[in-house]
Amino acid sequence: MSIYTESLRFVHIITAKHVIVGIQMRSIDNKVLLRMNNKYGEITTVITEINQWVSHPTDSSVDISVLMYAPDHDLLDYLELPTTMIATDDIIKQHSISLGEEVFIAGLFVNHFGKKEIFQ
Questions:
Q1: What is the pTM of this model?
Q2: One-character DSSP codes across the chain
Q3: 7 to each of 10, 74, 115, how far by Cα in Å?
Q4: Which residues of 62-84 are buried (b: 16+ CB within 10 A; e: fewer)?
Q5: Does residue 118 lie in a domain region?
């Protein structure tokens, strides 16, 4: 049976490993809370378990933790980043990307969080 691969999706939530380690060290219930916007621009909290988060099994210098989780698009407002937008070793080499390059990230600015999305 052939599988139509373009219809397959694997959605993951990614954060810094040191964030998950910090939660694990301080948590009394082993929960990791995700703050997300719902379809109405309001804040929703998604509860995950610390043992659902996966880090690199052998290289402790890799500061990434991953949660295999696809939020419900009917309830929560988020965008998926396709793997075609992730820089591979070939792309890094082709574009001479190296230390000191300017990068852009999306995430929560902890000193400037809000209670409602203002850009809709």
A1: 0.68
A2: ----GGG----EEEE-HHHHHHHHHH-SS-EEEEEEEBTTSBEEEEEEEGGGEEE-SS-TT---EEEE----TTTB------GGGSPPHHHHHHTT--TT---------TTS--SB----
A3: 10, 18, 35
A4: eeebbbeeebeeeeebeeeeeee
A5: no
Is residue 63 in some structural domain? yes
Domain tally, the chain: 1
Domain extent for 77 = 5-94
One-letter identity of residue 17: K
Residue 117 lies in a domain: no
Is 107 within a domain?
no
Query: Over the stretch 56-96, which tens digit does the pLDDT of each residue have?
Result: 999 988 899 999 988 888 999 888 877 777 788 898 899 88
pLDDT tier for residue 4 given thresholds of 50, 70 and 90: very low
